[in-house]
Mitochondrial import receptor subunit TOM70-like (Limulus polyphemus), 619 residues
Amino acid sequence: MWRGRAYHLVPTDRSNMASRRFGSEGNLPKNEIGWPKWTYALAIGAPVAIGLGYWYYRKSKSKRDDDFSINGKGNLKPKSNLNPTSAKFSTQKASSESEESLISVSGRDFQKNKTDEEVLPKEPCEKAKAYKNIGNRYFKEGKYDKAIDCYTEAIKVCPEDRKGDLATFYQNRAASYENLKNFSEVISDCSKAIELNNTYIKALTRRAKAYDTISDLKNALDDITAVCILEGFQNSNSLLLTDRILKSKGKEQARKAMQTRTPILPSGHFIKNYFISFCEDPIIKISEKYKEEKKDSQNPKELSGFRLGIHNFVDNKFEDVIKNCTQEIERNGQDTAEALLLRGTFHLLQGQTDAAKEDLKQLLEMESVDVKVRVNALIKVGTLKVHAEQMEEALKDFDRAIELDPNNADIYLHRGQVLLLMDRIDDTLRDLEKSAALNSNFPSATAQKCYVQYRCGLRYNDSKQKEEALKGFIEAHEKFPRCSESYFLHAQVLLERQEFEKAEEFFLKAGEIDPTDPNVWVHRGILYLQWKQDVDSALGYLKKAIEMDTKCQFAYETLGSIQVQRGHLQKGLELFDKAIALAQTETELAHLFSLRDAAEAQGRVATRLGIDIGSESNT
Ligand SMILES: *[C@@H]1O[C@H](CO)[C@@H](O)[C@H](O)[C@H]1NC(C)=O
Ligand SMILES: *[C@@H]1O[C@H](CO)[C@@H](O)[C@H](O)[C@H]1NC(C)=O
Ligand SMILES: *[C@@H]1O[C@H](CO)[C@@H](O)[C@H](O)[C@H]1NC(C)=O
Ligand SMILES: *[C@@H]1O[C@H](CO)[C@@H](O)[C@H](O)[C@H]1NC(C)=O
Ligand SMILES: *[C@@H]1O[C@H](CO)[C@@H](O)[C@H](O)[C@H]1NC(C)=O
């Protein structure tokens, strides 16, 4: 399961992206609570800047009715700003006289025509504006070199104290350079404009894009963050650009971090839940048999290799498992295939992607391997490809697995999760239905099927489907009264429906069934924020989650987000760092780095714009 990391798995209805991200009342982003206890699948497209939520949070407190949303569906694609017509200048009206006389010079090289010079107004300000107007005309005609000359003249004659005008001239010249793809000049002119007016949105946006083009992501991020703040997070194009920059920057850092990170085994709770997401896991089968038959009579001192690995696995001594499997593999013992599967799984769990791939590949190349072992390995190979965002390749592994063992419920459950990441929600539902049908005693499949059915209902505004999903949950509770996952997912859905009391009841029920699950407390914290805006309770529950499981990355991440939203940047950054240290995969790291970057950029921009973050927010 995925430590309650829902949004990773739910690329969601795009049209709803922004309101999900920022919530409707300045709470945690809705995405945060989308997909809860899910198996080890990973995000493509982790969502943005929860960090940015702070500004929304603050804003929403002062302006409740100003609900943030991106209007309509079509508006989410950023329009290319590189064509001249989209760059509309704020044409300040020059005096009607000069405007009139200048029309005649349009299209000609005015500098060489003495009479034109005479036509220009004498007064410097007016003259500068006249040059600017000619420049604008050239610009619209696509004659950027000439436009640049005009703006240069405008800058030359404009009195220095006319800062607003000068800023406009520089900004306009930057737009011309942008069309000539001369980005160093774009940056230098925008910088001059911003120096003259540090809240000049158009210049900041243009410079952000130029920095982005030359891959100076840090500066691009600062500029676009400033724009988002100045626009009050109302402009979908700016938000999308921020999102994109944060993601590329996060990815870049994650790639580097993966090469140097020390592998950390996740918490015992996480590991156990990961294995529970398979109903036909050979390791679990072997462990159960071992528990039944041998555990008490067996002296572990007499065990070695894979058998000792299983003994330690059953005993939750997970640190020894890899070493013990290695012994089996090196001596090429009779359980080598199983040892490779177990070691590969542990490598996967601690984020050693290459080592995991190597183990599973070696296993798949062996002959006469039990089919369940082979299929389980194929599913995990597929998962690893998902981590590397090779979705189509991953699907091929699942196809191979289905060929070998067509009635294996695990394959469909895990393929369903890949399909969900690919935003193929109908196919996801079909696979989960199939998984649940193949094994009516597989609680995860049933619970997840209900959850995805509800999401389908949301996507297609189909209330019948939603009702069926809710009914399905009730049936699942009756059938699997000890399945915390189905209570947990049901609670998620109820939270989304704002049925808070019932949601809490089911979260508590999930916690009762699995008292070692820290995610219950994380989500209860989120519930209290949404329901009662009760930050203190939320913080309390999150701290409890961390006490229960000091490796609960999701708790650190959520706590960090709340601290940033409250304006406690430093605390937030520290918590994000803790989450980063625990992250297992590149995708996950990329997401966390994005959060961290968003928070840091806010801090820098606030200073630059002279906004005090800390003082206003100690509520
Ligand atoms: C200058 O512009 C006027 C029209 O305003 C035109 O009649 C004249 O021929 C131009 N002179 C030169 C040297 O291009
Ligand atoms: C950009 O414009 C400046 C000033 O006109 C020029 O010196 C420089 O060579 C140009 N750079 C590119 C890459 O075109
Ligand atoms: C700075 O730019 C903003 C537009 O982004 C404008 O509203 C403001 O008036 C400008 N300030 C000055 C001093 O020109
Ligand atoms: C196997 O597990 C034991 C703990 O039971 C551990 O002490 C030992 O170092 C491990 N190593 C090998 C090679 O089996
Ligand atoms: C969803 O369907 C209901 C009727 O079932 C309708 O009233 C509502 O406007 C629909 N919402 C959207 C967003 O289409």
